Amino acid sequence: MNGRTRPSPKPKWLKKRLAAGPGFEPTRSFLRENALHTVCEEARCPNLRECFSRGTATFLILGNRCTRNCRFCAITQGRPDPPDRLEAGRVAAAAEDMNLAYVVVTSVTRDDLADGGASCFAETVTAIRRRVPGAAAEILVPDFQGDREALLGVLRSGPAVLNHNMETVSRLYPVVRPGADYDRSLGVLARAAAFSPSIPVKTGLMLGLGETAAELKETLKDIYRAGARIITLGQYLQPAPGKHPVARFVPPEEFEQWKEEARATGFAAVASGPFVRSSYDAAALHGSFLKTFPD
After folding, report:
1. Count of domains in the chain?
2. Is residue 7 a part of any domain in this protein?
3. Distance between CA atoms of 121 and 90, rounded to whole angstroms?
């Protein structure tokens, strides 16, 4: 692999219609006018037009520059700006103005901060709960470098779902996620599940990075044993030249098989498909979980 590696051509099932609905431009304009970042834009999500057209978005807090340089991700790596302490209020106000009943918040990884940005997540969840009392907040957090107290501080703010993505199998971590650690990420899931059983734990995996079926099955078991009960499985797409190449495009019918495998492993809610992303249709997936565990 070298810096000249170009994205692989996509098969027909990955060619998504690009037409935007009438809500697309108002949503994009609103977010820019309020100085809000979204992972939809920064990570070049293939579902961006669909979600913006429906008036939804996944908020990206703590800036748009990441302190890590994961080989699968399109977000810019570099020196971030200091946290904006008014950001939590802006996200909460935006959630209210957008009439969001389910708010998804994630961030870049901030290894430059003592708590990894955990306090900013807690402030954001608290601000959403105060400003939009009826809304649920799902948070997709980094690993906080394994800091237990940082994670527990976020959980104490009362999110509806705690999500931390595993992304791939253990063998591929050094190549795909330099700076991250497989066991450390499993530890985030396990600590979250143990500390607050009432908050469901969610994670996501990308397929097509070079994992084997046996490795993927074992990873599903590891994640389930750690305590996660909601999982998403989606196709990895090389976001830019020089990023990790696609090893394989997984056909839709195989995603259905992995969905059944995840359910057989014990997961209560599973979303699996080529265009599935961690925060895509998150409210519906949470609703599916609640049907299984209504209490």
Report:
1. 1
2. no
3. 13
